[in-house]
From TrEMBL:
This is Chloride conductance regulatory protein ICln. Residues 175-200 are annotated as: Disordered. One of its GO terms (biological process) is cell volume homeostasis. It holds the Pfam family Voldacs. Gene3D superfamilies: Pleckstrin-homology domain (PH domain)/Phosphotyrosine-binding domain (PTB). GO terms for cellular component: cytosol; methylosome; pICln-Sm protein complex; plasma membrane; spliceosomal complex. It is found in: Cytoplasm; Nucleus. Belongs to the pICln (TC 1.A.47) family. Its main location: cytoplasm.
């Protein structure tokens, strides 16, 4: 799968047309919202177009230019939220963050680097705003984004599938009694934001890790207590 925003020109029908969907692989149209402007990164808003939300992707098509359109898969949308703060953006909008293949390069940024010789480089766009002409539609768009994001969970890495996350009580005691040899580490909590983050965080795994480390702390307290008694 190609991460990030991409050009989309596959239209069917007369006039402005509609996006050509991958019906053979089960892609279905979920919502159509006319009168939506799109803002890519720090650029000015594009002319008004129509937003198409399918079970796989978000597609924006210009109403006036049949050759202009953008699309992003839900798997590349890492966060979306309703933005109504005029200090963040003058118009109420649906704010989205987009994962790109260029994110690992610290020198890449979506500001001045997103354009080269006047040509927009979509591979460096990490933020997208969808600005409907009717702000009352924002809640509806947000709910549909949430539903479609749930239909596209992050794929499980092969390395994670190879691990056996089921432990017996004896195994848990062994892990707790020998912290130096244990490979368990608490994962840092992801930064939360108002909106929806597309991801599949395993709550049971986190609870198990906390239980194991709780045993470690109890052992540390007991050892500390015995040591202090020995000095008296």
């Amino acid at each position: 799968m190609v991460l990030g925003l991409r050009l989309f020109t596959d239209r069917v029908g007369d006039g402005a047309g509609q996006p050509l969907l991958d019906a053979d692989n089960g892609e279905e149209l979920m919502h159509v919202q006319p009168g939506v402007s799109i803002v890519l990164g720090n650029r000015s808003p594009e002319s008004s177009g129509t937003l198409y939300i399918s079970t796989k992707q978000v597609v924006w098509l210009s109403d006036g230019d049949r050759a202009k359109g953008y699309a992003v898969d839900f798997l590349s949308v890492s966060l979306h939220a309703v933005s109504t703060d005029p200090e963040a953006y003058p118009s109420p909008c649906l704010y989205t963050q987009i994962e790109t293949e260029a994110e690992d390069d610290d020198e890449e940024s979506e500001g001045s680097d997103s354009e080269c010789n006047g040509t927009l480089d979509l591979s460096k766009i990490t933020e997208m705003r969808l600005v409907p002409s009717d702000p009352s539609q924002l809640d509806t768009l947000f709910e549909i984004f949430c539903k479609c994001a749930e239909l596209n969970p992050e794929p499980i890495e092969e390395e994670e599938e190879e691990h056996n996350w089921i432990f017996s009580a004896d195994q848990m005691e062994f892990e707790a009694s020998d912290p130096e040899e244990s490979e368990w580490h608490l994962s840092p909590n992801p930064t939360s934001a108002i909106g929806y983050s597309n991801g599949d965080h395993d709550l049971s795994q986190t609870v198990l890790q906390l239980q194991i480390n709780d045993h470690r702390f109890e052992d540390a307290e007991e050892m500390g207590g015995e040591s202090s008694h020995g000095r008296q």
